[in-house]
Amino acid sequence: MDNKQPLILAFDTSCDDTSVAVLKGRKVLSSVVSSQVDIHAEWGGVVPDIARREHEKNIPMVYDEALKKAKVSIEDIDYIVATYGPGLAIDLEIGLNFAKDLAIKYSKPFIPVNHMEGHLLSGLLENSKGTAFTEDVEKVKEGEGLEELFPAIGLLISGKHTELIYVKKVGDYLKLGQTLDDAVGEAFDKVGRILNFGYPGGPTLTEFAKKGKSGVIEFPIPMKNSNDLNFSYSGLKTAALYKTKELREEGRKDKEWVYDFCRGFMDAILESLVIKLESAIQEYGDVRSVFVGGGVFNSEEILREIGRVVRSYGLNYLYPAKEYRGDNAAMVGLVGYYKIQLGDYLVEKEGIEKVDRVPRLTF
Amino acid sequence: MNIIDTKKDKDLAIKKTVEVLNNGGLIVYPTETCYGLGGDATNPEALKKLMQYKKLRGSKPISIAVANRKMAEEYVDINEMADNLYENYLPGPITVISMSKGKLVPPVVSMQNSVGVRYPDYLFTLEMLEQFGKPITATSANVSYKSPPYDIQQLIKDLPKKSLELIDLFLDAGTLPKNQPSTVLDTTLNQLSVLRQGRVEFEDALVKNKKIEEIKTKTPKETIALGEKFAKEYLTGHQPVVVALSGELGAGKTQFAKGVGKALGVEEVVNSPTYTIINEYNYTEENKERVLAHMDTWKLQEEELEHSGLIQNLEEGNIVLIEWADKFYQEISALCDNMNVPIYKVVIKYLSLEERNIEIYG
Fold it and tell me: For A258, which of A130, B99, B212, B266 is 20 to 30 Å away at the CA?
């Protein structure tokens, strides 16, 4: 069975990082991210974007490393996959062209993939031993039972995106809602900036929230009564700016109120997410699962609280392991895997050459 | 192997530590996170020895530990953001990245000339640092790719003999609570002072321009409406054109852009381009396919501006809205001059939580 699974090489350069991964079916054999932060390193991970976005320089190294770690050679690969959107055109181009050239040179079938579909399905990834990261995926045996998970709702939150998706089945999506202004991760980072935390402010804010008390400093819940499935965080950002000014004008030191402030802000964000997710679940009564993805789920609290809501409806909860929550190529390879099942890939050289990046690609 | 129990005889421990550090030796010392590896951060010989121990780190820099803010100030520039961290959260498990004053050498300085400073919330170590009078290295005492150590005996058991021999003194404070490694906060990026400087230059430049509108808006909706009205009057039919937007976080720059999108007939949701850098929206004008480019310089470094897609969009004759345009106003206005592209400036200021004063210059 295992030997029949295709060997997939995947590229993603839609973001700051250059990412390359090798998968055997749904199993991740290797996943290399250029700026990969060694968790034991003190501060090697924080460099300005300019240094990180050097996809052109990074990609041959990251590609070599991914093959090496997976213990395979390019000749062994069955399919090549690359993100073609969304993202900055100049960034997308580099990974896409590198992948297309490889596919043509080695006569491999090629699959262009939507980066956001990668985040959406990332909960279905398995580690190299073939174990999924959530119990709910374990229920799904290869080739049978996948349909048991659908239809589903997808909640994707990162620095760039905040989206709710209805997933009829793999490959069949409907966008239900999105942010009208700032993304959740962006709101965290910007309010971290207002509080003068330095970079990255967002994770610091979620850390500090752990030390604060709920209900001491309160914020308005964004879009509470909007009657749709959209999100908005610019008003919350303004409220945070004003509240900060107010507290500082009272002459109180930041450390006296900052933890309760972060707690209150976190509560408002969480509640806004929960309200919209519950509305979506109620509106689409046939859903069996909730899939989540995106860098904001690096906050264990957000992952846990959303999970609590999902469970209360008796639904499956699918989320990726920590290393696949942020941007990575493994999730892109996984989408490629499902496209292979659907026979959705390009074999002819002419067809592969024609694939162009789509910076504003959406569901 | 030299091991001293810091709890039994603190003064002896500090005295011995200072001796070892002065001789360019290496120590293993306790902090509020894990055991750290210390050597005189100003002594190249000690740093060389340290790198033999850590190996395999690539070009990743090593942080320094200081006894107090004053010691930090001797080696790094403490800007407004760093000042906030020192005043409110330190000593504590945070590494603050600041620019070097030039007294330190790699590996305690990064390629960008920045230094990571730890001001640990651990009494013994603070006293020891004060006695020594100079910063020491602050890196976890494990060899590369091993877990950070919380127990001296365990560390000694885990270390290869060669690594063990490089350590001159172990300061044993028992098993430390398993706290997470320090949070790293970079204060060298996106500094307020840079934004403020940009804003001053931007506002100085406005004096030479004609004010074509000044309006108070009471709600985001009114800001959107103003953007719509402005676009209809000044933008359509005059492409390529740049609209430079300036205003604090949450002032309503994106709301104004929404109005422009609405006026042009953009059907997609116009939302914040901060993280995407540039959003390109299609719309139709007199049966022709056109593009509205909405960009943001917040996350951009100066060198990145020319790779952002701004020039291509102007070459294609598009309308380009730029949030945080004041940050790179000089560059943007020089580019517009060269390409003979008109540039409108929109300045949004807070009057209250909801109200804004909006000025538009031609």
Answer: B99
Answer whether residue B100 shows pLDDT above 60: yes
CATH architecture of B192-361: 3-Layer(aba) Sandwich (3.40)
Residues of chain A contacting B85 with CB distance shorter than 8 Å: 196-198
Q: What is the pLDDT of residues A69-115, one digit of tens each?
A: 999 999 999 999 999 999 988 889 999 999 999 999 999 999 999 99
Contact between residue A83 and residue A14 where contact means Cβ atoms under 8 Å apart = yes
CATH code: domain B3-186 is: 3.90.870.10
Structural domains in chain A plus CATH codes: 2-133+323-354 (3.30.420.40), 177-318 (3.30.420.40)
Comparing C-alpha atoms, which of B19, B349, B350 is closest to residue B168? B19
What percentage of residues in chain B have a pLDDT greater than 90?
A: 75
Contact A40 B140 (CB under 8 A): yes
Q: With contacts defined as CB-CB under 8 Å, which chain A residues touch B272?
A: 179, 181-183, 186, 234
Among A13, A43, A158, A164, the strongest candidate for a mutation testing the B interface, having the largest count of B CBs within 10 A, is A43
A316-318 and B94-100 strand pairing: unpaired
**Cβ–Cβ below 8 Å for B254 and A234:** yes
Nearest CB neighbour to A193, from listed B249, B281, B307? B249
Q: What is the pLDDT of residue A129?
A: 81
Mean pLDDT of A234-241: 95
User: What does the alpha-carbon distance between residue B218 and residue B256 come to, in Å, rounded to a whole number?
Assistant: 13
Per-residue pLDDT, averaged over A288-302, amounts to 96
Contact A241 B268 (CB under 8 A): no
B341-362 burial, b at 16+ Cβ within 10 Å, e below that, comes to bebbbbbbebeeeeebebbbbe
The ipTM is 0.87
Looking at residue A144, its pLDDT comes to 57
Residue of A nearest to B149 (CA): A40
The two structure tokens encoding residue B251: 């002032």
pLDDT value at position A142? Answer: 53
pLDDT at A56: 85
Residue A50 has pLDDT above 60, yes or no: no
Contact A40, B142 (CB under 8 A): yes
**Among chain A residues, CA nearest to B107:** A44
- Indicate where chain B has its CATH 3.40.50.300 domain(s): 192-361
pLDDT score of A141: 55
Chain A residue with Cα closest to B81: A196
**What distances in angstroms separate CA B254 from CA A230, A234, B194, B203, one per listed residue?**
16, 9, 22, 20
pLDDT confidence tier of residue B200, bands split at 50, 70 and 90: confident
Inter-chain CB proximity B82 and A198 less than 8 Å? yes
Chains A and B form CB pairs within 8 A to the count of: 160
Counting Cβ atoms within 10 Å, is residue B141 exposed (0-12), middle (13-18) or buried (19+)?
Answer: buried
Nearest CA in chain A to B58: A44
